[in-house]
């Protein structure tokens, strides 16, 4: 990692008072790579409207695990800003997505999740099939043409058991290329056939980007005592920083990585990593990490959390396949379970973190896994992060806040921010936002 | 009813995203008769400010039943946006209305409802009589002229026991002509002398217009099992739609209507209907409807709900006198009781539905009527409608919502919307809003 | 007090409807001395942003009693709009103040109050000493210069045990001159060494200025039965207004005042009053008032509330040293205890009133004072005022509200408003706000 001296210059940087509002284009133009974003990105209603529009209504976003709607007729709804999307498995077992809005006078059609034969509006009983076609509407004049009133479709993809949607008319094409890179890694876990062991929605008192930034670094991982017993405690170091004192630990880590590679190769599963977080539209990162201690799962010191291994996995020491996707999701896929995370904005200063635990479809609660134990590490970690995000939302909303410098272990935060800033710049166009100098720090 | 083919054209119609705001004048100009309003009418703060100004601060609105303040000194307060109005019966038993604001430093004078001799400000004890004159203010300089600090009056009318107010400096003159048409129908019930058996305020999670639109059609009445047992199940039909299967039902209905006419004529009470919902300033509709089953009241299958008949009514089978008034009220007046409804906006996306049940002044609870039974049908119906309104508020706030076509039995919804759009157009003026083509569907 | 006839002219004055927004400069220009402020000053978000900026972020505001942080390392936090300030006693026992914002990614550093050795950010453990210097930050590149990342300081003064802060870069210099006038009056009470017996935060449903205006007059004191038993009931009178009936009361008051002067002189303590509420930047008033009845404290009829007298006070009949400071505080300092009040805005229509009771450091609860009795009079009075402020916030937000005339005993309300309007005018500049005619009524 190349470094640039961070000097007093930052201190003079643009503190904005609550009374003066800076146009978003100007905020984007003056964004300094290697430092946190200005206050307005976390507090301004105009920025938030732009986030909902440019990010959440135009990019591919993670919606649900396919395992949440296993049977034909199963549906769930996803709120994206003031949009609601019905994700439903149709009679051919295909996953489909529609805007959750009746074509008559606009009533919401379905709530939460459940099972339906057809989609019947609760207001005046207009009835749609699972492909969105209007089957029936009472008391219509003779000229009424039902084919004009189908439900409005939403783009949807099932990537090896992970369902993504895109609300845009034209969805970014980049998704399919990324899916092709990711799919072979996920295939052996057969997540689409998994069982949902638990799901939890955590109300965050912070802008969605603060929740994402929190996820994208382990600089704060000392605050996660439950989580870090499963990992090699090297997350604050680059290889060149390994001191003689850390050498034995580092060598242990290298051995575990080598062992993991052997195991995965034996199953014919790729172990190459990918890191394209900022430089493509569907920014992503895919990492295979050995675990410490027993090396099996997120239990204390790497202990196993479910007796049944996922899909085709045969060795319990199968590492942590960690996938990060821009803008709103990340995944930990282990030999015995997977944990699926997504962040949805609910206002400029609040969001919801959804966590879903997946296990083998035949794993029995109380027999193969203890639910509280399965959830414990991420319940604790999420709650610790919730407090940090809330404290940061308050701080960045303070007129005294000035963006500060990222440390040497916050590259992925920079990559997230850079991906985000790029999306907004593209949207506003080169005339609105002249480019700034590239970040000298980013290896991305 | 004339019909116009509804085609794919609608589908292309103006979906607005949250980020672009369309001026109200443009929204009014492009409003298409025969279809529901665009999203902004239910979600935009500018539209809401205009609604409060043009509709609720300039039109005659229903405030209360006169029976709520039977004695001199009785008062109640009515909130209209951020305005509060005191409606009080003065020492001459006249109903008067004042702005509920002290002329000193502005404190609210009275809360809720009660009884007063004079109106004394809770802050510094400025004291006003029931005609609004300032009687007393302490520690004033010699030149202080009390006559300059009377309470600011509000226009008020008592229409046969129904109290209407108008916050405008100049109230629409049309009210008196409508009152003259309506009064003879209401007179025999003597509502001004009735007893308030119950009153309920229901918090609606929807714009006030969605609550009104819900009231103005029975296209959704299959969702009201308690209510429809008292009505002839013909609400989704025009006469020409009556199929052979429905013929016996229709003939039963016609006989009941004819019988009702005989009874009402015997009491010298008019039975002509009126429908001027969209084409006058005080838009209204007045309908005499026979009830099904026992034909007496809103009990199951038309059963009676109070033993004492209202006012001068002599026959328990006296039909349902149903009155709809723009913008915010409707009334069901039956032989044995009346139910009075009004809608008040509390924000762009919330409102309050007030329901008041009136019975004969001597009707005794537990003896002549059972309170829970009296209320049951409208408590249930209001709650069913509350859920539909809430689902529709969410749906029309969705960027994917596009206005849809009214069915053949939603004429009164069109009339309400048309009345509303006309008021806003008049306010903004012909230069701001060029007229659109008239609605080919409306018989209004 | 000179008087000006108040005529019908006021009645015509500028009622603004919710739909039209008047620029603040215009509101300031047309403000009429001798009358309450227009609605927008209590309801408009732009005015509120200006209040936070011009008043709360540029003036000296009362933050806390020094007795709340008696030891080195004791800290408390103060919220001012979206700002948070840490007030901490450093290792040299000096009171210091910093913005409560980490220089890394902006997290809040400390919550509420407590004790710390260093200030450690909860997020990534950046560590600052009590003088605000960054001591430690992990994983920084070689060029990282810690001296560039000190906590941002806030101006702070300890005036005889009362801590004031100023968030401006340049704090108004006037403070020191006022402190010099006030300090000799406070010195004998040694408030810095006092004990905090109680503190209460009361949520007010009103703009902060309504809470201040309520404090600045006793025209409403008939509504405070508990409070007024300790005072001579003369608060609604000027000397020339004393009627023959009031003469004996007035003479009793004069004797008590003379006695108080003797006692205070014997202790070498000044008894001169000051009134510079509107005509200096740090507007203040300082009054020595004898109490009625026993003359000792705020107990019923002047009864004592704590057996231990504050600081060097030797006579229990030591009067009420009442200090009013613009914009947000007032103080009652009595022989046996002091009560400290401050108002902080929390939104345009809400604020918090903080009340702190101080007693002698050795006074023991249950022995020297009964806590409930000590608090009773101000708990009751604050609650009575809370209801009045809430009723007034609703009233001034009503479109029917028009500013009304101050009575002859509301001079200090006029002085508060005048001070406030002057600050806003100075900020916007003479070009934006041409001056209006001076107030003929103000003796200020
Ligand atoms: S709104 Fe769906 S059927 Fe009417
Ligand atoms: S506000 Fe009503 S008397 Fe003062
Ligand atoms: S935000 Fe304080 S150390 Fe990172």
UniProtKB/TrEMBL annotation, chains A, B, C:
InterPro entries: Rieske_2Fe-2S, Rieske_2Fe-2S_sf, Ring_hydroxy_dOase_asu_C_dom, Rng_hydr_dOase-A
MF-aspect GO terms: 2 iron, 2 sulfur cluster binding; dioxygenase activity; iron ion binding; monooxygenase activity; oxidoreductase activity, acting on paired donors, with incorporation or reduction of molecular oxygen
Domain Rieske span(s) in chain numbering: 61-165
Species, as recorded: Pseudokineococcus marinus
Superkingdom, natural source: Bacteria
Protein name (database record): Aromatic ring-hydroxylating dioxygenase subunit alpha
Cofactor(s) required, per the database record: Fe cation
Classification via SUPFAM superfamilies: Bet v1-like, ISP domain
Alphabetized Pfam families for the sequence: Rieske (PF00355), Ring_hydroxyl_A (PF00848)
Keyword vocabulary terms for this entry: 2Fe-2S, Dioxygenase, Iron, Iron-sulfur, Metal-binding, Oxidoreductase
């Amino acid at each position: 990692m190349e470094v640039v001296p961070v000097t007093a210059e930052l201190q003079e940087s643009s503190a904005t008072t609550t009374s003066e509002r800076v146009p978003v284009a100007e905020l984007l133009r003056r964004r300094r790579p290697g430092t946190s974003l200005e206050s307005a990105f976390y507090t301004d209603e105009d920025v938030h409207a732009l986030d909902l529009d440019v990010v959440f209504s135009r990019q591919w976003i993670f919606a649900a695990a396919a395992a949440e709607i296993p049977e034909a007729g199963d549906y769930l709804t996803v709120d994206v800003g003031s949009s609601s999307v019905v994700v439903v498995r149709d009679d051919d077992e295909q996953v489909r997505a529609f805007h959750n809005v009746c074509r008559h006078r606009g009533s919401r059609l379905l709530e939460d999740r459940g099972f339906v034969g057809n989609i019947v509006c609760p207001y005046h009983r207009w009835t749609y099939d699972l492909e969105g076609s209007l089957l029936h509407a009472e008391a219509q004049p003779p000229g009424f043409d039902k084919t004009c009133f189908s439900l409005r479709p939403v783009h949807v993809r099932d990537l090896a058991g992970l369902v993504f949607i895109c609300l845009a008319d034209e969805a970014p094409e980049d998704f399919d290329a990324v899916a092709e890179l990711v799919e072979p890694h996920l295939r052996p876990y057969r997540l689409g056939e998994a069982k949902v062991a638990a799901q939890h929605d955590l109300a965050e008192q912070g802008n969605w980007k603060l929740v994402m930034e929190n996820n994208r670094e382990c600089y704060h991982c000392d605050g996660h005592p439950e989580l870090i017993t499963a990992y090699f405690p090297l997350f604050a170091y680059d290889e060149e920083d390994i001191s003689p004192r850390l050498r034995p630990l580092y060598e242990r880590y290298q051995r575990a990585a080598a062992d993991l590679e052997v195991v995965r190769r034996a199953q014919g599963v790729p172990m190459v990593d990918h890191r394209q977080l900022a430089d493509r539209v569907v920014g992503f990162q895919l990492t295979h990490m050995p675990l410490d201690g027993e090396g099996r799962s997120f239990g204390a010191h790497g202990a196993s959390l479910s007796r049944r291994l996922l899909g085709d996995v045969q060795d319990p020491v199968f590492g942590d396949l960690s996938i990060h996707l821009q803008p709103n999701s990340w995944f930990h896929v282990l030999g015995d379970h997977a944990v699926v995370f997504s962040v949805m904005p609910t206002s400029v200063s609040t969001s919801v973190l959804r966590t879903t635990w997946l296990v083998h479809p035949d794993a029995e609660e109380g027999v193969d896994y203890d639910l509280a134990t399965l959830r414990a590490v991420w319940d604790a970690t999420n709650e610790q992060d919730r407090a940090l995000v809330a404290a940061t939302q308050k701080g960045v909303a303070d007129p005294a806040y000035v963006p500060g410098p990222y440390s040497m272990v916050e590259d992925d935060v920079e990559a997230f921010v850079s991906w985000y800033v790029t999306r907004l710049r593209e949207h506003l166009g080169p005339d609105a936002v002249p480019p700034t100098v590239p970040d000298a720090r980013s290896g991305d």
